[in-house]
User: Which sequence fits this backbone?
């Protein structure tokens, strides 16, 4: 029995790494297409897309993967089984919509968390709040790093803005966004968090 469980765990670990890599590549391509477009109705130069891709991928390595890994790691530290899973039905939209409409639908997947704690003890509502908050808080931290390096390069301005916007968007109290879980469990802590993210977006605009 232990051997079977161990093999399943190893397979899920490999699948998670694969899902993260695919999600990162597809999202980076979608954002690169949007940035390379010549205005809202213009097309994109594929040379520009390829030029932008490594820079965008580096930003999303923190903004997207950092966000999802924060959810996963906090859930695991609190005793839950958690792993990232790509949504292969919605993932193609991250490229199709930028190509034809000029915007990114950034819903490549999510961290799947077991409904019951595997070990340890604590308040489930507290756990839900901290797991939900961890992703946006990670983005706020990355945005502050970009803000500190703001004057050094336009790259860091883009880095800061993307992280700040992703934090603010995910903190909106709309299901299934992180903000809906936070406002349901600890609204008094959700409010200063979304205000901080909103002020960052306003400052970086």
Assistant:
């Amino acid at each position: 029995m232990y051997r079977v469980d161990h093999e399943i765990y190893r397979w899920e670990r490999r699948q998670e790494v694969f899902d993260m890599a695919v999600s990162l590549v597809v999202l980076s391509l979608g954002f690169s297409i949007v940035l390379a477009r010549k205005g809202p109705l213009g097309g994109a130069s594929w040379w520009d897309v390829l030029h932008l891709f490594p820079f965008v991928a580096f930003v999303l390595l923190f903004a997207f993967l950092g966000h999802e890994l924060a959810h996963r790691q906090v859930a695991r530290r609190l005793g839950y089984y958690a792993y990232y899973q790509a949504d292969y039905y919605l993932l193609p939209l991250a490229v199709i919509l930028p190509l034809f409409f000029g915007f990114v639908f950034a819903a490549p997947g999510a961290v799947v968390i077991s409904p019951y704690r595997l070990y340890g003890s604590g308040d489930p509502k507290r756990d839900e709040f901290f797991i939900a908050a961890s992703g946006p808080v990670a983005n706020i931290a990355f945005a502050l790093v970009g803000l500190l390096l703001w004057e050094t390069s336009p790259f860091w301005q883009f880095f800061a803005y993307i992280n700040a916007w992703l934090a603010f968007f995910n903190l909106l109290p709309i299901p299934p966004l992180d903000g809906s879980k936070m406002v349901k469990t600890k609204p008094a802590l959700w409010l200063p968090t979304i205000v901080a993210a909103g002020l960052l977006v306003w400052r970086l605009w």
